[in-house]
Here is the input.
Amino acid sequence: MKTLIKKTKCDFSFEHYEEILRLAKRKYKFSSFLERPDNEANRIYLRHDIDLALDKALLLAKIEHKNKVTATYFLQIDSAFYNPFNKESLEIVKEILPLGHHLGLHFNKEICQFSKRSINEEIKIQLNILKHFFPVKNVVSFHRPSLEILNQKIDSGKIISTYEPDFFQKIKYLSDSGGNWREGCPCEILAQGKYSNIQILTHPIWWGRNSKNTTEILREYLKQKVKDLDNYLVKNIKTYHSNFNKSENKKT
Here is the structure.
């Protein structure tokens, strides 16, 4: 394989994300987790764990569609930052699906401390909840997976874990956790082309039109969330709306 000369610098910009996708397409077939790794097929499993920003996920989904690439988006039903079932979220997810992408469950096992159910039982319940709204695959990714989760299969194999051996131990695994690629940017690894199958995990929050440091990204995100909440209160709570208008009038 010829070495591809990079056109953009390694960062978390959408421009460089597109370059990563183009590099991957030179050797790999983008696959869902319903397809097992195959050394002859050279599969790449592109996965997005949505911890915070659904709107960023949609932007990545559009970029992938433009580049004729499919990915799997994992929704968290107990996120502290978004509700997948409110109107805005439903509209976003229903925009992602026609772009050819797949959906799975992003599972936080801490909920089992309160439900008193096993991890397997809780995963099945959460998958069924998601399936009431979306065509979700029987695939689960774990939020902050513990050692007991890594390289383990779920239940009888009917539910696929992105961390079971076929997708984690036996193939190359790359993640941008914390806004950092621990082994260097995927573009460098993809350019080498030495791995038969690869799983790439991204968290949409880190990606944007311009690359910024993680602190900047999170501060901007928090600022936007406060603004969104303020707008919600203005629209839905009369006393808040009334006081808001008074305070605005005083400013003018």
